[in-house]
What does this fold into?
Amino acid sequence: DAGVHSKAWYASSCDRKMAEDALYRSNKDGSFLIRKSSGQDAQQPYTLVVFYNRRVYNIPIRFIESTRQYALGREKSGEERFDSVAEIVENHQRTSLVLIDSQNNTKDSTKLKHIVRVS
It folds into this structure.
């Protein structure tokens, strides 16, 4: 279990559009929630959705079968791995998360600051 189900930031029945709309409404840098990934893929069970600088970022959360851990984004060498999704959130509430905009090829960073609830 990824440790998500009892958490305020987990929007279990939320799709991508609902998540993005909720974050745009919050309009606060560092607003975030976690939703199930659209693909329902065991290798990528969740998506971290973050609002920063008037943009919404959808960051895949990967499940690494071999170590039974979780990591953010595409696989890279030296990546941070976590024992649960809750640990990812707790870590990035303390340390900045790098946001990569693949369209404009820019990088930003923010901490996870404001939990957004999807109504």
Notes: The mean pLDDT is 93.
